[in-house]
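Subject: complex prediction, re-run

Hi both,

The earlier run crashed halfway through, so I resubmitted it with identical inputs.
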Amino acid sequence: MNMTPGIRAIEGCLLGCAVGDSIGLPYEGLSTRRVRRFARLPLRHRFAFGKGMVSDDTDHSVFVAQALIRGNAEPAAFRRALAWRLRLWLLCLPAGIGWATLRSILRMWLGLRNSGVWSAGNGPAMRSGIIGAAVHSDPQRRRALVEASTRLTHIDPKALAGALAVAEVTARLASGTWTEQPATAELTALLHGISPDPDWQACVGTIAEACASPDPIGAAHAAFAGPGGVSGYVLHSVPFALVAWHHHFGDFRATIEAVVLAGGDVDTVAAMAGAMAGAVTGPSGIPSDWIDDIADWPHGVAYVRKLARRIVDDSVSVATHFSPALLPRGVVFTALVLAHGFRRLAPPYR
Ligand SMILES: [Mg+2]
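This time it finished cleanly. Structure:
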């Protein structure tokens, strides 16, 4: 298919998020030491019987894409559409839901207008890549949409800074501003301008040092990860994803492998890095076995690709409502997550 750069980046972004999420999921929560012992390169799907499934990172990104379409990228309508999807999603047994996201959705069900809670988790950043790619030509609207998405669940300014960082990167990729690896100075100038938060500013300085070091991934691990790997704190996970994406610019597989081998909140960091890496490469640069071996429903590969195309092409016919199939699917998924949990109690994991 002959795709314009914008469509290629949008589809690559949403698909890259799903692929990173599903490749990373079996390693979720493993320490760096354990993941390095058990991950075999080249990575392939191994969530269940050699197939992959997606988690909350992809579900939320799909909801954001649906809400962008339903709300015509108008922030208030977008916010309403996203809030309803999150409310219904909570009823579908979402395994591994973040604590802040759980509390904020309960507040939505109680009818509280300000549903967001004080948290600097990475929930908003894991779903903001698609906003940047989809709304790449309108910086003010993009920011308003990322803010609307973020404040539904998280009100700590650091959560917003992380979400904006991912969206501003995917916007530059979808607009064709960055067709090659941007200079470290250019990347960090963008990041410095995102938020005056002092912790964010310090974090950007550390990102710059990591990118400029001879071993950017090792430097990022030293700065943003502990023995348990990269945590879900937004000032750990987003910087690590940014350095992996930047260092391996244009190489989707290497980007995701660097994230997986770091351990920690692997699926979410890989979803964020995958959204950015996929916006560089488009769908054709994502390893085909990683795409083909995702076995999921209703947010599987065919749906994700169609939904991404619908953002730019009204003639694409695709459902944009919340799918009730997420409930039975949630039961199966939760059972598989529990099976992984038990599996880790036995050798060779122990
Ligand atoms: Mg997840």
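The chain has a mean pLDDT of 96.

- K.
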